[in-house]
Amino acid sequence: QAVERDFSFVFPDAVQWHTIASALNALAIAELQSVNTVAVWSAAPHSPGVYSLLIRCVFQSNDRTLRDDELTTWWATIIATLTSLGGTIRA
User: Fold this and answer.
1) Backbone angles phi, psi at 9, to 5 degrees
2) Residue 59 in 3-state DSSP?
3) What Å distances lie between residue 59 and 6, 15, 42, CA to CA?
4) pTM of the shown model
5) What is the dihedral of CA 26, 28, 34, 31, to 10 degrees?
6) Which residue among 40, 54, 67, 72 has the highest number of C-beta atoms inside a 10 angstrom radius?
7) How confident is the model over 62-88, as pLDDT tens digits?
8) Are strands 50-59 and 3-12 parallel, antiparallel or unpaired?
9) Which one, of 58, 68, 63, lies nearest residue 29 by Cα?
10) What is the CA radius of gyration of the chain?
11) Cβ partners under 8 Å of residue 32, min gap 6
C-alpha cells in the first residue's frame, strides 16, 4: 500500500522546481515512487521574493509493507534537503 506525505514549504523565488526535484531524486530512496507539485502560491505582496510550495511524495514498495521508522527517517531527510535549499516549513 502506498503512503502519501505532503510537505509545505516557503522558498526564495531564486529556487526553481527543477533544483528541488533534482535534490529529492538525488536522495535515491528506492521507495520514493513520485514527487509532484500539488500547489504553488505567490507570497506577494505580503512576502515579496518568496513563494509557497506544496509537494506530495508517494512511497511504496512492491514486495513489503513500509515501516514507520523508515518513513520517519525518509521524511526527516526530505525536510533537511528542502531546508538546505533555502526552504522553510510553512506554518
Assistant:
1) -135, 160
2) strand
3) 11, 24, 28
4) 0.91
5) -170
6) 54
7) 999 999 999 999 999 999 999 999 999
8) antiparallel
9) 58
10) 14
11) 24, 57, 58, 59, 74
